[in-house]
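Dear support,

I submitted the protein below through the web form. The confirmation email said the job was done, but the results page showed an empty box. After a refresh the structure appeared. I'm attaching both so you can tell me whether what I see now is the final result or a partial one.
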Amino acid sequence: MTTTLTSALKRGKSFFASTPQEHEGGFTKAPSATTLFPQVDPTIDGEDCLHDCESCTVKYPNKFKVDEEEKLYGHVNGWATHMLVATGKTDWVRDVSDEKGSVMEAVRDCGVEPTNGPREHELPFFTHPSPHTHLLLLCSQRTRDARCGISAPLLAREFGRHLRARGLYRDIHDERPGGDCENIIRFTVLQGKIVKPNRQLRGGFDRKNQIVSW
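What the results page shows now:
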């Protein structure tokens, strides 16, 4: 069954809203990354849980620099609904609503602005359920940050290598079993644990335990 974006926004509002510390539906703010998601523990997960990047087959270019000292956690504004638009592309103009003939251009032209509450606008298109069980989203928008255009294909290749080794598929059209990357797959993706909470988690939510980072 198809559904309009308006109804999706209404459903999203029931999950997250209101005050900085307490949210509608019983959600509360997690004060730290390890409160939101557990950190790997060598005594439980084995010593190799801390040996990330040792088995990686891809390397970033020498001039590829990332600030690993800046605090990440807690720097995500609260939201109710994510809208994912499948374009088949890996890069876009800086403001995606400026893509001519795109869904996001239609959203902008309909007057629907990003918000955590519902807006009473019907859109000239429909949304469909995702055929995927899980989604791993990698930022590849070079026009926002050139490093994303460099890192995304390298991460996708390395993630795919570790996924295939575990009998998983990279995407819906990949019939080959199998699709610091190894530990992100082993612990973060498959077990919900974070390896380096101070460097790898900017924000998120745990619907089961009703906690969010904002």
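Response: this is the final, complete result; the empty box was a page-load delay. Residues 146-164 form the longest helix (19 residues).
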